[in-house]
UniProtKB/TrEMBL annotation:
Name the record gives this protein: Avidin
Signal sequence segment: 1-21
Disulfide cross-links: C25-C104
Family, as annotated: Belongs to the avidin/streptavidin family.
Main location: secreted
Native organism taxonomy: Eukaryota, Metazoa, Chordata, Craniata, Vertebrata
Pfam families: Avidin
Entry keyword set: Biotin, Disulfide bond, Glycoprotein, Secreted, Signal
Native source species: Ciconia maguari
Domain of life assignment: Eukaryota
Length: 148
């Protein structure tokens, strides 16, 4: 049984090692989504909070688009190399707000990707119009400039 111990040790290290070498996904930086919208996320503080700016390419009235502030939070654990997060964009050019939730991944090629789902709530005139006030969708963001 003593000779089996080194074999078991090598096998267990082979299973654990890929997880140890995985690069950590970092939210901070410049991102572009699948529709061409850009966002910049500032530093994530010790409690997981962050802020940034969002510049969308899609709107009901594209001529009125302005850069809009975003505020968010990342789940903070040192073991989590692919953290979950959420943020809110308060649109500067319309009476609407969008909340995003997602996870930051590093794919098999080392590329960082943000997979998100969002809800956009628009202001409506009365409760009878509430049915058309919320939209839902998904976006995939990729990093514009690699992390150094």
């Amino acid at each position: 049984m003593v000779q089996a111990t080194p074999v078991l040790l090598v096998l267990s290290l082979a299973l654990v090692a890929p997880g140890l070498s995985t690069r950590k996904c970092v939210l901070t930086g410049h991102w572009m989504n699948d529709l061409g919208s850009n966002m910049t996320i500032g530093a994530v503080n010790a409690t997981g909070d962050f802020s940034g700016l969002y510049n969308t390419t899609v709107a009901d009235n594209p001529s009125k688009i302005k850069e809009s502030p975003l505020l968010g939070s990342q789940h903070r654990t040192e073991q989590n190399r692919q953290p979950t997060f959420g943020f809110t964009v308060n649109w500067s050019f319309s009476d609407s707000v969008t909340v995003f939730t997602g996870q930051c991944f590093v794919d098999e090629k080392g590329k960082e990707v943000l997979k998100t789902m969002w809800l956009l709530r628009s202001s409506v005139g009365n409760i009878m119009e509430d049915w058309k006030a919320t939209r839902v969708g998904i976006n995939i963001f990729t990093r514009l400039q690699p992390q150094k």
